[in-house]
Design goal:
- Its EC number is 5.6.2.1.
- Its cofactor is Mg(2+).
- It catalyses: ATP-independent breakage of single-stranded DNA, followed by passage and rejoining.
- It is a single chain.
- The protein is α+β, with helices and mostly antiparallel strands and about 725 residues long.
- A seven-stranded mixed sheet has the order 2-3-4-1-7-8-9. A seven-stranded antiparallel sheet has the order 15-12-13-14-11-10-16, with helices on one face. The protein has a seven-stranded antiparallel sheet with strand order 19-20-21-22-23-24-25.
- A hairpin with a 6-residue loop joins strand 23 (about 660) and strand 24.
- The longest helix is centred in the N-terminal third of the chain and has 29 residues, at about 155-180.
Length: about 725
């Protein structure tokens, strides 16, 4: 019997699988052992062919050549990673290789990575599928003991191909049509455009919002603050100032009678385990991490450190088969700050049917939890430790009893008006003990909690103080990356139609995009200069607002993606023909191009500068990147861009905020919002004196990070040259 070829998605996972399968011999782009050969992609090695592959005329963007509707969609090797593709292909064609195991990420896109490689290589050897949720040695070994027939995942592959081809047909045709029609780089797509529309709608709500003053009453008796409540509406506030002022007058010199004194014991269960969206949202709230940053950190904790399970999950539950591994996972975290919480759980018998276990609520992957591998904190960055801590504490919390507290509510009456006071007293901390002094975010309450003395029904107390309170209604909050990710997951309130079936579909299919793609979509909107950040708040740019006016109405609505995801899910389940879906997409792409061609509208650059492009001589546009300010050429075909200022990790010595690096070479200077300025050369001298405690590794990591970001955001090397010379 021949050897088995294993195809992983990335080198790091390939090396892990290779070690478990005892593949110690390094060969070109692979590892070999006596029974197995392990090779890998670098993510996708094969992709859909560019338009010019079908016809050379598509090299030039012309309205008359649209829509582009290739009869059969071809795939091609990605040039940048062609060497690795050839290495994988050589292993597939080896005569001593009898079968293949697909070991790419267990999901729709992971399936596509491997299947396209095998298709492009024209593979005819039998295939099996490894389907695992973590890449620990134990999980890999168990996975190989229970390999599935790859044919079981054919429908998942068909759904993945449909998603890719549909996005190609709709995205490229609509983007080219808009760009040609208005002579501006206007990118659109079925997920990014409705996401943009949601932000614009929120901005419109804020713009139209008119604050309304409201009023209330608070009185004090025996040191307790009582708050007035309108018994009819149930509200603690009124918009009628005269009414509140009259009540205040009536109560002057009167006594408060206690008409009710209720004390109840209440329980509050732990929050659910994390899926990726909730983790991204809370990491943004607590640490200001972007959605993409959190996903990248998670990916490292999953792939490199192997201490957390698969991150791209939309479930907050575990499956019953995971319960047998809980004790091992607890053993792995039974150290340091977690010991006092993990140790009792290890000794105790776990519940047979806990609330966090529900097979029906897990599709591809269960919630994010620790693996059976103990962490090595020395090799973790500060950011990785923060995310790991969030997951571990939540994992421990769901296994602890509810937080129990005694809640007392006092109801007082004066002249027919009712006043309330509430107090709580913890009885049993339960899961809350795990969070120690970390505050779990609680919504602002109308009725504040306070320490209440014992008061009996029928008692009367003199009112020591009575005051009128006032405030103003607040507009909706602007989106941050955390709240935007949550809105993308549940965009029902942004739907224009009141179609209940469609709303249900949006809820069931997980909203706009998938847990795996949302962070990239947000990054794409920033890099296309459609969004910008002011502090943590997200704003649309003038370009985005104009694009939303010009783009066909369908592409602005969340309903479109809901419909697609519903059909893709049906294809994955074998309940819908992929051919039928793609025929609909081709018709839809044709209709979109027609709509754009015949539309009336204009696009105007309102960010034009007087500086000329050194390549083509046209005036440059001033734009804000996510962490930089740039000048870009207005001519999309020219593509020139120059970074003029970049937010760095260098901290201001006065206010400790991150400084911008402006200019290049000898003229490069750090500038802070507080007014502090410092030449790059002076900064280097100062850091050299201060840097005794900074390791070489820290310096290298800092430089690598800055250079990588600079590469991503600028076509000019001026910033890179300046960054090369920074010595911390």
């Amino acid at each position: 019997m021949g050897k088995t070829l294993v195809i992983a998605e990335k080198p790091s996972v390939g090396r892990d699988i290779g070690r478990v399968l005892k593949c110690g011999k390094k060969i070109d782009g692979a590892l070999e052992g006596s029974q197995y050969i392990v090779t890998w992609g670098l993510g996708h090695l094969v992709t859909l062919a560019d338009p010019e592959h079908y016809d050379k005329k598509y090299k030039d963007w012309k309205m008359e050549d649209l829509p582009m509707l290739p009869g059969k969609m071809d795939i091609e090797v990605i040039k940048q990673t062609g060497k690795q593709y050839q290495a994988v292909k050589r292993q597939i064609y080896r005569k001593d290789v009898s079968d293949i195991v697909i070991a790419t990420d267990a999901g729709r896109e992971g399936e596509l990575v491997a299947r396209w490689i095998l298709k492009k290589a024209d593979n005819h050897k039998p295939c099996k599928r490894l389907w695992i949720s973590s890449v620990t040695d134990k999980a890999i070994r168990q996975g190989f003991e229970h390999l599935k027939n790859a044919k079981e995942y054919d429908n998942l592959y068909h759904a993945a191909v449909c998603r890719a081809e549909a996005d190609w047909l709709v995205g490229l045709n609509a983007t080219r049509a808009l760009t040609c029609k208005y002579n501006a780089q206007l990118s659109c797509g079925r997920v990014q455009t409705p996401t943009l529309a949601m932000i614009a709608k929120r901005e419109e709500e804020i713009r139209k919002f008119v604050p309304k003053p409201y009023y209330g009453l608070q009185l004090q008796a025996e040191g307790v603050v009582f708050t007035w409540k309108d018994e009819k509406s149930g509200s603690y506030r009124s918009f009628q100032k005269d009414r509140i002022a009259n009540i205040q007058k009536q109560l002057s010199g009167k006594k408060l009678q206690i008409i009710k004194a209720d004390t109840k014991v209440k329980k509050q269960g732990a929050p659910q385990l994390y899926d990726l969206t909730q983790l991204q949202r809370e990491a943004n709230q607590k640490f200001g991490f972007s959605a993409k940053e959190t996903l990248n950190i998670m990916q490292r904790l999953y792939e490199n450190h192997k201490v957390l399970t698969y991150p791209r999950t939309d479930s907050r539950y575990l499956t019953a088969d995971v319960m047998g591994t809980i004790k091992e996972r607890l053993q792995a975290i039974n150290a340091g700050v977690y010991r006092e919480f993990a140790a009792p759980l290890i000794r105790r018998e776990l519940p047979k049917k806990p609330a966090f276990v529900n097979d029906a609520k897990v599709s591809d992957h269960h919630a994010i939890i620790p693996t059976e591998q103990a962490p090595n904190y020395i090799h973790m960055s500060n950011e990785e430790r923060k995310i790991y801590d969030m997951v571990v504490r939540r994992f421990l919390a769901v296994m602890y009893p509810a937080y129990e507290y005694e809640e007392s509510v006092l109801t007082g009456a004066v002249e027919g008006e009712h006043f309330y006071a509430r107090g709580t007293r913890p009885l049993h901390m339960g899961w809350k003990a795990i969070y120690e002094n970390q505050s779990e975010d609680e919504e602002e309450e109308e009725l504040k909690r306070q320490n209440l003395p014992v008061m009996q029904k029928g008692q009367e107390f003199s009112i020591s103080d009575i005051r009128l309170t006032e405030g103003k209604t607040k507009p909706p909050a602007r989106f941050t990356e955390g709240t935007l990710i949550a809105a993308m997951e549940n965009p029902v309130r942004y739907m224009e139609s009141s179609n209940k079936e469609m709303a249900k579909t949006l809820g069931e299919t997980g909203g706009l995009g998938t847990v795996a793609t949302r962070a990239d979509i947000i990054e794409k909107l920033f890099s296309g200069f459609l969004l910008e950040k002011k502090g943590e708040d997200i704003y649309t740019t003038a370009k985005a607002r104009q694009l939303l006016e010009l783009v066909p109405e369908d592409l602005r609505k969340p309903e479109l993606t809901a419909e697609w995801e519903m059909k893709l899910s049906k294809i994955a389940e074998g309940k819908l023909s992929d051919r039928k879906f793609m025929n609909e997409i081709r018709t839809y792409s044709t209709d979109l191009v027609k709509q754009i061609k015949t539309a009336e509208g204009t696009f105007r650059h309102d960010n034009m500068t007087n500086k000329l492009c050194p390549n083509c001589g046209k005036r440059l546009l001033a734009v804000n990147g996510k962490n930089s300010r740039m000048l870009v050429c207005q001519d999309r075909e020219c593509g020139y861009r120059q970074t003029i200022a970049k937010t760095t990790n260098a901290r201001c010595p006065q206010c400790h905020k991150r400084m911008e690096l402006i200019g290049s070479g000898e003229n490069a200077s750090f500038v802070c919002k507080c007014g502090y300025k410092e030449r790059l050369s002076k900064f280097q001298e100062r850091r050299k004196k201060e840097g005794a405690g900074v390791s070489k590794r820290d310096v290298q990591n800092y430089l690598k990070k800055q250079q990588k970001e600079a590469k991503q955001e600028t076509g000019s090397n001026a910033m890179l040259d300046a960054l090369k010379n920074i010595k911390l």
